[in-house]
Design a protein that fits this description.
Length: 691
């Protein structure tokens, strides 16, 4: 009986355990069912979207960058396609070993390795980075045959920027470069980051930077189905990229080429404007640089050479270089005197060769001087004494208040980034600039040298050219502009870019004519008569010589005792033709001495080009490069027949739209100008000869 009772007890206990286990299993199935119900019904839409995302990838398709063209439709910046060997460091093992193995198949130079290392330091480690660019078809085939050996390495087709004319107009055009960390942070702040997915390059300087938004275009997207291993299987949908718009500049690249060639190895700047519109016809800064060096990332040696050169080739002298205007300031001083009633044209001042004020002697034309000079003769013969005394009579603040509306020491508002203000002195400026009380005070003696464009005066050639254009235009000031049209990448329609309306400075016409007549006299009987001998038109001008270093109080300037970079700058301002100006300009040749010897001859050839369609003869060009020219020598060439000098190292490409096939041709020094999809607009009268 006892055994029976134990058996029954064990059986009851077993049943109890089975019931508990069954209840646990039932609860588990119940919970599983509820979970399935929740996932299948309540989370259905969300999970379906996640599942789709797991097997689809949104791949950005970067747009073709827009072209940059000159006023006649010549392509200055374009794109071409090439293959690039790229490595994703996070997907490779021993990176150095991989590169070494790749080097056995494809030539990878020490420069390539250095550039790759630099890019790795700038990236977040997840990016695909180029180790070799511009692969040949043979190199692509060699790698493709052994691709299985190199996980994380692939060949990609990329669009590359090309600047067909190399160093010509490089400061205006600018360049693009790879997007670095600073660029990424700036894009994030501007909410443009999404539009740069898949884009490796961005404008860094000049028009490329200033009009980045127009040139870049709109990034497209492709939805691609992927396998479990992440490989693309098929394209599901796509939103095509929209190519960037093309930009047409107001500059004439052949005129730009001619001016840069005339400078030779000398340094300086030229800004030429249409006084009736403000369009920039030439925007020269010498020396220049090749923007193609920056497209893939400039190598260390090239960067060191450019950045450490005493000639500062990376400095845009037309936009950012500031210079004392020297005697080119005198016509504006004369205009100030007339407008403010400080002097009449007939007032005669005795120029004895020097003028003493406050115990200091301010020198002029040696010890002999010019004798009695009125306003006309003060400009034609460039009397310093006349303007020393005028500055003393006017005072610094009156000069400041007249010169400011002309644009001196002010931002002109030109449509390119990087402009500097320069210095137009006043008593308030000095109080705000200096810290020590004795430095803040304005001394009467400081006013005197301002009258001849020295002292604290420091302006850009852009400001000086704008002021000259305003004077030539009767006191109507236009804002300088480089962009004249934009072509839409989709519709192919061209939209003219309107300039700002002119500002009337209120100059009395009779006063303008007095000053302009004297400037014409400079070319007929004054300091630039040698350069303009035999010209088929009348022009107005003014020579200038500006100190690069301060000369001691009791010392006389002697160029032979100074280093070349310490010698005086040569300047010239001018307009032509005198009766109806169609071009106005400012020229500086650094450390070249007298403006009549170095700057005026350059101006003569610019006017001959614009007004007569003439290009210097070969012997004349040789003399200009050496700074030994006066009036033109030899028979001038027809400008329309002189070829443009394409960059011998560049690949010249014409690409009218993102959908068109890119045509590639090897550039030669005698190649014809590249055709453009943008038709040349009707040129203003000032540019009819610029063909």
């Amino acid at each position: 009986m006892a055994e029976l009772r134990n058996l029954q007890a064990d059986l009851a206990q077993f049943r109890k355990r089975v019931l508990v286990a069954g209840a646990v299993v039932l609860c588990a199935f119940l919970l599983l069912g509820l979970r399935l119900l929740y996932l299948q019904i309540y989370r259905h839409d969300d999970l379906l979207e996640q599942a789709d995302n797991n097997r689809t990838t949104a791949v950005p398709t970067p747009p073709n960058r827009g072209q940059i063209l000159d006023r006649n439709g010549v392509v200055l910046a374009t794109n071409y396609a090439a293959y690039t060997l790229e490595i994703t460091p996070s997907k490779t093992g021993n990176l150095e070993a991989v590169i070494d193995d790749l080097g056995k198949i494809i030539d990878i130079s020490a420069r390539d390795r250095k550039q790759f290392k630099k890019l790795r330091e700038e990236s977040k480690g997840l990016d695909s980075l180029p180790i070799r660019t511009r692969l040949t078809d043979a190199e692509v085939a060699l790698f493709s045959a052994q691709r299985f050996r190199f996980p994380g390495v692939e060949v990609k087709a990329r669009l590359y920027r090309d600047y067909p004319f190399g160093e010509i107009a490089s400061h205006v055009i600018g360049y693009i470069g790879r997007i670095n960390q600073a660029d990424k942070e700036r894009l994030e702040e501007s909410e443009e980051e999404g539009n740069y997915r898949g884009t490796d390059y961005i404008g860094k300087l000049g028009v490329e930077q200033s009009f980045e938004k127009q040139l870049h275009g709109i990034t497209g997207v492709e939805d691609v189905e992927t396998s479990a291993g992440g490989h693309a299987v098929r394209k599901l949908a796509s939103s095509p990229a929209t190519a960037g718009n093309s930009i047409m500049l107001s500059i004439d690249i052949k005129l730009q080429q001619m001016i840069e060639e005339m400078f030779g190895n000398r340094r300086g700047a030229v800004v030429a404007l249409d006084p009736k519109t403000g369009e920039v016809l030439a925007f020269v800064s010498k020396p220049t640089f090749d923007p193609n060096l920056f497209v893939d990332g400039i190598d260390f040696d090239s960067w060191k050479e450019l950045s450490e050169s005493i000639d500062k080739p990376l400095l845009n002298r037309a936009l950012r270089g500031t210079y004392p205007p020297g005697s080119t300031y005198k016509p504006f001083m004369a205009m100030a005197a007339l407008q403010n009633g400080k002097r009449s044209p007939s007032t005669v001042i005795n120029d004895a060769g020097s003028w003493t004020f406050g115990g200091h002697t301010f020198r002029s034309h040696g010890d002999g001087g010019l004798g009695g000079v009125d306003m006309y003769r003060s400009i034609v013969k460039s009397s310093n004494v006349y303007y020393y005394t005028l500055a003393n009579e006017m005072g610094v603040d009156m000069m400041h208040d007249f010169m400011k509306p002309l644009g001196f020491g002010q931002l002109t508002g030109i449509d390119i980034n990087g402009e500097v203000r320069g210095v137009l002195p006043s008593q308030e400026w000095k109080r705000n600039t200096y810290k020590k009380p004795e430095q803040k005070k304005w001394y009467a003696g400081e006013t005197i040298s301002l009258g001849i464009g020295q002292g604290y005066n420091n302006f850009t050639m852009l400001q000086l050219a704008q002021a000259t254009a305003t004077l030539a235009n009767g006191g109507y000031k236009y804002k300088p502009k480089l962009i004249v049209a934009v072509q839409d990448a989709v519709t192919r329609t061209k939209q003219a870019v309107a300039g700002s309306p002119p500002e009337n400075l209120g100059f009395l016409p009779e006063n303008v004519e007095i000053v302009k007549r004297a400037m014409v006299g400079v070319t007929q009987e004054g300091t630039s008569v040698r350069s303009f001998a035999g010209a088929q038109y009348l022009s107005g001008g003014k020579t200038g010589t500006a100190q690069a270093v301060t000369i001691g109080k009791n010392e006389k300037y002697n160029a032979s005792r100074l280093e070349e970079h310490q010698r005086d700058h040569a300047l010239y301002i001018a307009f032509a033709p005198a009766e109806d100006p169609k071009i106005a300009l400012a020229v500086v040749v650094e450390n070249a001495g007298f403006g009549s010897d170095s700057a005026a001859p350059i101006t003569r050839r610019i006017f001959d080009y614009v007004l007569l369609n003439q290009y210097p003869s070969l012997e004349d060009m040789a003399a200009l490069k050496q700074g030994k020219a006066g009036a033109p020598i030899g028979k001038p060439r027809m400008a329309s027949e002189v070829p443009l000098h394409l960059n011998s190292k560049a690949t010249t490409v014409v690409s009218a739209s993102a959908s068109e096939t890119t045509a590639t041709a090897t550039a030669t020094a005698t190649a014809a100008p590249v055709a453009s999809a943008i038709q040349t607009p009707a040129a203003p009268a000032a540019a009819q000869a610029i063909k």
